[in-house]
Amino acid sequence: AQSVTQLDSHVSVSEGTPVLLRCNYSSSYSPSLFWYVQHPNKGLQLLLKYTSAATLVKGINGFEAEFKKSETSFHLTKPSAHMSDAAEYFCVVSAPGPPSGGSYIPTFGRGTSLIVHP
Amino acid sequence: EADIYQTPRYLVIGTGKKITLECSQTMGHDKMYWYQQDPGMELHLIHYSYGVNSTEKGDLSSESTVSRIRTEHFPLTLESARPSHTSQYLCASRAYNEKLFFGSGTQLSVL
């Protein structure tokens, strides 16, 4: 079984200030973790992914995330917010099922709406 | 560049109608998914497929059905639409590196 908890439904920042979007996960197996972004009236786009290589993962548009196994967290950060970062962000976990058969079914968090003020 | 297409983009229909939402991808991906998303909410998995002739129900109880006769095509059918089916439906396919590619979605309104 796997699950994802995004700790904030909304995050509001001023342009130029740091962004922190929090995500905790639960998985019975070594998971792959992802962050996707959804801009209004646009499709979901992959920001970055973690797949058991480096724990600090760099993505597109200046975003990065750190995998912390001890805390079961995968928080998304950006040093300086831009107006164009305003969107919905989804944390996703994908893990294999039991040894008898893989599943890799992606499970989405509830999403965090990032609001950027000028 | 996503090569996954959903049609129609918007659909308004009356209660009781049968509808099929189309999803096609040209990337040769075996794994495909249908998600339902209400405004400002998470994506709920309603169906998935591991390949041709493979279909499974997801976590969210759904009155829809899917088929996978060809790798590139994964249509979703509602036999009798109801107002409770009003939502956005997103189709996705999964690459070998686990990246998901999403279509633009179908916004369904049932009156």
Could you characterize what this model shows?
The complex is a heterodimer of chains A (118) and B (111). Chain A has strands at residues 2-6, 10-14, 19-21, 23-27, 32-38, 44-50, 56-58, 64-68, 73-78, 87-94, 107-108, 112-117. Chain A starts with a strand and ends with a strand. In chain A, strands 2, 5, 6, 10, 11 and 12 form a six-stranded mixed β-sheet that branches. In chain A, strands 3-9-8-7 form a four-stranded antiparallel β-sheet, with no helix packed on it. The model of chain A has no long low-confidence stretch (mean pLDDT 89). Chain A is built from no helices and twelve strands. Chain B is mainly β and 111 residues long. Chain B has one domain: Immunoglobulins (Immunoglobulin-like), CATH 2.60.40. Helices cover 0% and strands 51% of the residues of chain B. Chain B has no helices and eleven strands. Chain B has strands spanning 4-7, 10-13, 19-25, 31-37, 43-51, 54-57, 64-66, 76-78, 87-94, 100-102, 106-110. In chain B, the strands form two sheets. In chain B, strands 2, 4, 5, 6, 9, 10 and 11 form a seven-stranded mixed β-sheet that branches. In chain B, a hairpin with a 5-residue loop joins strand 4 (31-37) and strand 5 (43-51). Chain B is globular and about 40 Å long. The mean pLDDT of chain B is 92. The A-B interface holds A 32, 34, 36, 42-46, 49, 51, 88, 90, 92, 94, 104-111, 113 and B 2, 31, 33, 35, 40-43, 45, 48, 58, 90, 92, 94, 97-100, 102-105.
